[in-house]
């Protein structure tokens, strides 16, 4: 299944959704990857929609991916450098598909290797970024707010004719934050009941909400925390970090469900990096040897590659699921069926 097929189905669903929501019974949601962690659940500018101006090559149409995050997502992209193109889907730096201990991230693999469509990635993610910010008007990429503001000023506020994408049809927005936030919570003596967990995730979804209303974004991808309690950096109090991570992921799952309920004309996917990576720790496969950690906090390149395969499989599953006015995951969070394994759809080389 090609990326174009996924967005094609999304476009049909968006066109039909208004009537469906008022005249049809509640939709049957599609399935997506969620956390197996037990849960308690049984700017201001307005931007116009845009028209593509980039020429379409022979083959699948061009699709766009706007990504926000930290070092787990960053590719060191500069908004002032060479922009993404058909010949160079990342734009800059020119040596993006590099090799190293933990330099190649999931987003590099998923954009080029597990994707038969032409996908251009605008990656606002920055090493060390978190959900915490101190200035409303900052464009520092050290925070989600700063990354959002930079995207709004550099891209979303451009005149319609200068924007290459149709924001509500052929563009996905991904957000993976929390690693540096829980690192700070842990370092300051916090635990699973720390109020900052809810405050930070609420701020994350406030910005996702802005993308929905101000930028006309309709396709979202959110990723939960990996099993950081097993990272060497937190070996001094593994159980306390485990509690923080569980609390974070439970809260994130609730926020995803709430967003879906409040924004039915949209798709939001929650990817369970926690169990994907934990499974690799317990049962090494796909060439992952001698543990999953490249250093005290980061996962190895091979682990990023496996994560990319899993995300591709998850997004492809959405295409195969029925669409009845609502696109997204279940309203009740259940333990997912593991998809990792030889011969699974994750290895098919397609995306969405």
From TrEMBL:
GO molecular function annotations of the record: hydrolase activity, acting on ester bonds
Keyword Heme included in the entry's annotation: no
Signal sequence coordinates: 1-15
Signal among keywords: yes
Keywords: Signal
Name of the protein this chain belongs to: Carbohydrate esterase family 16 protein
Organism in which the protein naturally occurs: Orbilia javanica
